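Here's what a typical entry looks like (Anti-sigma-W factor RsiW):
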Amino acid sequence: MDECGIVQDLLPLYYDDACTPASRELVQHHLSTCENCKKTYEELKNTTVDRIMKKESTG
C-alpha cells in the first residue's frame, strides 16, 4: 500500500484524535505535502460537521 492509501485509512482516526503519536506525525507531514489527501481530509471534516448539524436540527 502506498503512503496515500495508509494516510487515507488513518484519516478518520486522525480526525477523532485516536491514532498513535507516530501515526499523527505521519498524517500531519503527509497532509502538508499532498494536496489530494489534504482535500480528502477537508471533505471528511465537512461531512462530519454536516452530520452533526443535521442531528442537532432534527434531534
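The two ends are 40 Å apart (CA to CA).

More examples are in the samples folder.
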